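Bit of a strange request maybe. I'm writing a small parser for structure token strings and I need a real example to test against, not something I typed by hand. Could someone generate the tokens for this chain?
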Amino acid sequence: MEYLAEYGIFLAKLATLLLAVLIVIAAIAGRMQRGTSEAPAPGSLEVRKLNDDYHRAALTLKASMLPGKQFKAERKAEKARRKQQAGLKRRRLWVLDFHGDIRASALTGLREEITALLTTAEDNDEVLVRLESGGGQVHAYGLAAAQLLRIRDRNIKLTVSVDKIAASGGYMMACVADRIIAAPFAILGSIGVIAQLPNFNRWLKGKDIDYEQFMAGEHKRTVTLFGENTDEGRSKFQEEIEDVHKLFKEFVGAHRPQIDLDEIATGEYWLGTRAIDHKLADELITSDDYLLKASDEADLFHLSWTGKKPWLARVLSQTSDALLR
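Reply from user aminoacidic:
Good idea to test on real output. This should exercise your parser:
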């Protein structure tokens, strides 16, 4: 009994502590909401000029390598050169990053970045998308490709760079570009469609568990996780998969007519060097080299959109920051 009494006191103390923490969090959240006169923005756009990054890196190296007087002379000459360039109108190259998962979660940021640059970009500008994705949901990557088409529709040059992988839905995005560049061992292709799911029907039957499913519409559900799949359902599902593959091939063919679809639309992928042979890409070069070369005659602007965190995540983040100070 004494042990149970001590255990009860411990639980009461723990509950009191948790309640106090929740009260503090609620109070902070209330103050944050009261202190804001208008609804906060859904996210923020960060713009960084990459030419400045290259300039700072070069100065850091030269400061370490050159004697003091030579470095000062070099720095003075560089300032004069940059001052002269400041008076010239140079083309702009907008740089976007897309790191895709199976749900194409980066799509939200991509559409915001594209909307922002389209308010400013001109015909002589170029957009470089550094794309990395192994594909995923058809509808999500279809929308992501449509976002890139917004750039093409405004007659702005679109280049897609593949340093690691653009496969399946990732290649669906890449193929809309005017030009695709790739690293020598980047993965491209996988123009195919796959769907797979387990079926637990026999296990449920073994446990004497019935699974009932009600539908209105003959093909509302073709195959299922828990019911007993039929040959008719499997056949219909395969038909749907084949149709998606057909649309995928038509989409790639429309944007890269130089590709032999019968040869490459088999679901296979190729590494960069071989991808060039199959016309899946146009040039072997990394995005780093491409941007460094372009910086000599263009202003490079990297866009990055950050979504607004849920209020609880913001409160916890601010609370932890305050405790660590």
